[in-house]
Amino acid sequence: MLTNPSFPDLLKAGTPLLTAWCGIPDPSVPGLLAREEFDAVVMDMQHGSIDFAAALRAVPLIAAAGKPALVRVPVGEFATASRFLDAGVSGVIAPMINTVDDARLFASFMKFPPVGQRSWGAYGALSLSGLDAADYLRQANDLTVSFAMVETREALAILDEILNVPGIDGVFIGPADLSIALSGGKSVDPAGPEVDKALDHVLARVRAAGKLSGIYAPSGARAGELARKGFNMVSIGSDTAMLRAGAQASLAAAQQG
Ligand code: 3PY
Ligand code: MG
């Protein structure tokens, strides 16, 4: 196992997992946030400025805190997903999965045969899991989670088909892009009523498929609402936002004193 209990077992345990969401380009940030009470840490390579080398160096730091590490790869970079699994992440989030072929391709890089075509070379994962090669090969497909992002009208329309792709463990909602799509490009309103209605539909379909659900929350308060709605994992964005909020609160306190 990369963590004990494994990340999929933690997700299925019933209590929604709250994760940090990191984009600052330094491995110490996810390493330090892993020491707070987050259940896992996500590094965002789609919109964050963290690069491959920094995110890779953060994986053992997060593991040293006993927490699962996840990465969101840039759009279409499924080979990068495999490289992070090799390094020992417990999950990968792939943005803009808008066709069944996108989902199949993503799954093929996430899972070893017979489910997919992940290539062998899991050296960091062997070290972090403590498993030998044979045990890792046998267990890896069930130890790691592939989240396909649903954040467009196209993806919503084929949600059941995406959920049915072997090797796709769940969907992860991008509420900002979804709000832009649902408003026809007129507004970005990730907590608005149109998004909320779509979320209820997504959660019902995910439960019917027996798969997992995750979502991004732009604030802690919204993360609480989404956890109560029943998502298995809610990511609280972001490290930069927390830094700004902390800085502003400290300055305000000092100025009042
Ligand atoms: C979205 O809200 O669209 C996301 O992808 C979260 O970063
Ligand atoms: Mg998005």
Element layout with pairings:
Layout: H1 7-12, E1 17-22, H2 28-33, E2 40-44, H3 52-64, E3 69-72, H4 78-87, E4 91-94, H5 100-110, H6 123-129, H7 133-143, E5 145-150, H8 153-157, H9 159-164, E6 170-173, H10 175-182, H11 193-209, E7 212-217, H12 220-229, E8 233-237, H13 239-256
Parallel strand pairs: 1-2, 1-8, 2-3, 3-4, 4-5, 5-6, 6-7, 7-8
Helix pairs in contact: 4-5
Bound molecules: 3-hydroxypyruvic acid and magnesium ion (MG).
Describe what this molecule looks like in 3D.
The chain is an alpha/beta fold and 257 residues long. Helix content is 50%, strand content 16%. It has 13 helices and 8 strands. Strands 1-2-3-4-5-6-7-8 form an 8-stranded parallel beta barrel, surrounded by 7 helices. Helix 4 packs parallel to helix 5. It starts with 6 loop residues before the first helix and ends with a helix. It binds 3-hydroxypyruvic acid and magnesium ion. 3-hydroxypyruvic acid (3PY) binds next to helix 10.
Quick recap:
The protein is α/β, with parallel strands linked by helices. It has helices spanning about 5-10, 30-35, 50-65, 80-85, 100-110, 125-130, 135-145, 155, 160-165, 175-180, 195-210, 220-230, 240-255, and strands spanning about 15-20, 40-45, 70, 90-95, 145-150, 170-175, 210-215, 235.
Order of helices and strands: HEHEHEHEHHHEHHEHHEHEH
Strand order of the largest sheet: 1-2-3-4-5-6-7-8
| Bound heterogens, unique | 3-hydroxypyruvic acid, magnesium ion
Q: Which residues sit in consecutive blocks of at least 5 with pLDDT less than 50?
A: none
Rounded to the nearest angstrom, the distance between the terminal CA atoms is 50 Å
Domain module tally: 1
Level of helix content? 40-55%
**What is the CATH fold-level name?**
TIM Barrel
Number of strands: 8
- The CATH architecture can be given as Alpha-Beta Barrel
CATH class: Alpha Beta
Briefly note the structural class of the backbone: alpha/beta
Radius of gyration: 18 Å
Measured by DSSP, the beta-strand proportion falls in 15-25%
| Residue-averaged pLDDT | 97
Shape: globular
CATH superfamily: Phosphoenolpyruvate-binding domains
